[in-house]
Amino acid sequence: MTGLLIWAIGTALVILPLWKLCARAGLPPALSLISVMPVFGVILLWILALRPWPGDPGYEGN
Questions:
Q1: What is the pTM of this model?
Q2: Which of 10, 19, 54, 55 could form a disulfide with 32 if both were Cys (CB 3.0 to 4.6 A apart)?
Q3: Where are the domains of the chain?
C-alpha cells in the first residue's frame, strides 16, 4: 500500500508541472498524461524544448 502511495505522489510531481508547461507552450495540457510512460515522457520533453513558444520572436501560432 505504501508503494502505491509513493508512486501516486511521484506521478503527480511529474504530471502537474508538465501540465502547466504544455498549456504555456500552446499544446493540449492532457499531453502531460503520457509522461507516465518513460519513452513518451522523453519525447514530450524534446517537443517542449524544440518547439517555438508563444512570446518568442517570430512565433506565428497555429
A1: 0.79
A2: 19
A3: 2-50
